[in-house]
C-alpha cells in the first residue's frame, strides 16, 4: 500500500530496461504498482518518494499540447537522494556509472562551508541524479560541516 503523502517524479525514457538497471543500482526498489512491461516502471526510495520512467509514447499522451525536453541537452530537474556517508555517495555514483550512467557535474564543491558532500550522475536518458551526504553541522544549519 502506498502511504497517503508520496512525492512522485515522472520522466520520459528511451529504454525502460536501461532506466530500471540504472535506478536499481542507486538503491531504488521497483514497485509492483504502475508498471507496464516495456512502457513504464515505478521505483521507491524510502516511504515517500516514487520515481517513474515512462516510454516517450506514453509520457507524451499525458500532456498532448506540450513538448518534452531533451534531457541530454537541457536540465530541468535534479533528483537528489540523501545517504548516510561520503563513502556511500561515492559508491552510488560508481554503481550508477557501472549501470549505464554518466558522471555528472559536481553540484557542491567538496568541503563546502555547509558540510554538504555532493556528487552527481546522469541516467541513460541524461536525467540528473545528485547523491548527497549532509554532515551533522549541515543538518543543524551550521557552517562548519567538518
From TrEMBL:
Source organism superkingdom: Eukaryota
Protein name: VOC domain-containing protein
